[in-house]
Predict the 3D structure of the following.
Amino acid sequence: MLLDHLDDQQLLFFGGKGGVGKTTCAAATALSCAQRGERVLLISTDPAHNLGHLFEHSIGDDGHSLSETLDVIEIDAARTTAAHLKQVEATMRRLSPPRLHKEIERHVQLAAHAPGTHEAAILERIAQLVDVHRTTHDRIVVDTAPSGHTARLLALPELMSAWTDGLLRRRDTADRLSAAARGLSAKDAAVAAASPLEQRNQELRHILHERRELFARLRDLLSDAHRCAFILVLTAEALPVAETIEFHHELTCHQGLRVPALVVNRRSPVDQGEFLARRHEVEEQHLATLREALPDVPLVQIPLLEHDIVGTEQLHDFARHTAGER
Ligand SMILES: Nc1ncnc2c1ncn2[C@@H]1O[C@H](COP(=O)(O)OP(=O)(O)OP(=O)(O)O)[C@@H](O)[C@H]1O
Ligand SMILES: [Mg+2]
């Protein structure tokens, strides 16, 4: 069982190439954990959501409780980005003089289409969801979009923290310089501190600081092997194998994440005719490459099933099919 390779890490990510079975594995794992009494939150970050289809229930960004122990949320990327930008604009307007408001509006409109905005908004939503639900849920399972996207997403906390730090440093230097330029005495400084300008500065610093702390907490959680794990899902074919080796390297060496197991999905049967038996042989060759590159990572293999997996009954069945041998 895949669960045998997991400890009680609170945050579980499922990633891998397009169409290999990430959503099915994430949902089956969430369901198994919920069934054994854990309080579970399953989050989908993939814009092409299909958790709703899988659980045969409409879910959406506000989330839905499928049972007493299983909650599901599909992050709506467009809504998240719009809400994120609206919040940024409101904050900037509140903190700047009215003559700049038109300019701010223009900047925010441009930002809506800038590369990275979308990912930053999704990351902020994940960070907030994790922050809120880490105290209410035993497990948070995240079904991610195909690999490239996810690697960038995980590199973001670092980037966003660095960016916020830079802004805070610039603010501090500017404040010190302007106090010095004005030759403020301690008494003058006390009066200046109560001025509307200084209050706005304080508020801005507070907002930046909170954001920094939010991303720092997510980063801490991501890089703690006892609290976070990343499961890579693949099929036993040349390209998914090559990409998994690269992705594993990126996650473990560059991001400091732990990958406790790989799920090899859709294994062809050996006893259903010659064609599939030959395919099984070819798959074995690809898995040999995988085992050689990553000798210490356990493989959990799942057979190719006759049908698509839809509904809790079939998800249970899917979870039962996982076997832990290498
Ligand atoms: N072992 C299996 N046997 C048969 N069908 C499977 C198996 N695993 C997954 N499927 C089916 O394959 C399809 C793709 O699976 P899934 O949606 O989980 O992949 P994904 O990696 O999340 O895809 P995407 O990258 O598009 O998000 C689904 O229809 C699912 O029911
Ligand atoms: Mg998916």
Remarks:
- The two ends are 12 Å apart (CA to CA).
